[in-house]
Amino acid sequence: MSHDATRATTADEPTDDQPTPKHVLDVDDLSDEDLAAVLSTAAEFKRAHYAGESHAVLPDRTLAMLFEKPSTRTRVSFETGMTQLGGHAVFLGPENTHLDRGEPVSDTARVLSRYVDAVMARVFDHDALESMAAHASVPVINGLSDDAHPCQTLADLFTIYERFGGFEDVTAAWVGDGNNVAQSFAVGCAMAGIDLSIATPEGYEPDDAVLARAAARGTAPEVGNDPAAAVEDADVVYTDVWVSMGEEDERAAKLDDFEGFQVNDDLLAGPDDPIAMHCLPAHRGEEITDAVLESDRAVVWDQAENRMHTQKALLAHLLGAR
Ligand code: CP
Ligand code: NVA
Fold it and tell me: Less crowded by CB within 10 Å, the N or C end of the chain?
């Protein structure tokens, strides 16, 4: 639709020829330089946060947060993060929009773009994010889809960097389901130069297309079906739930399929004394034991906290404040 020629225009008003905004539907939508900048800004914001120094670099900016699925960490870390940056976040759960009543994602994206400065969305179908990004005139950030969880990967890479002082010579293992969190982690590890070995039950490996994207940004992970082989020499062992959101009907079958893939003291008993990572929520006694989660090797609370610092950095980066 053309704009009303009689209406005064401003530089911020949407036009048909404005540049495409930068969207982050997976971690490799960031260049290596973007990734380095986001991690560096996250360190800056984390330090400022603990020093009690204002870093309100996004005053008057608003983030819309669309959720088709539940969330504890993603919602609270983005919302609190926007407050700390001097902006505001609007929570839109499944009941709060017309999406469930048939308003297309594309229309929703166009309308939200007229109000807010960025959209974060958690969806089932990754295609919904692609459609949102195609129609939004503000940045769209993936807050988890069935295929990818790039915001989790940013926090995970930041946590690994904090623990090891860099990525060089860090070896990681993924044990468990090869879906969203694993897929983004695989691409993120390739971008960071972290050697990754993945062990999933047969049939649960990451998609070949994702492995190809990892290879395009560094070295593709080794993928197999043997947890003990994957964790050999690992400095980092990462797992995720066996039954993801939306898979509740597959629970019984998946519990059978994932037998032998639990991250427990026996699996981590090797000489390299790996740290244990989990995106949370954890299903204690399934993919990871209480003992591992409560041990000194677990860095899961740091991962959860670092969601906030890295997402603040991502928002500042995408909105031109860093
Ligand atoms: N890790 C993660 O995304 O947690 P939530 O589902 O609580 O947001
Ligand atoms: N794989 C999990 C990750 C939760 C953060 C899920 O999709 O439910």
Answer: N
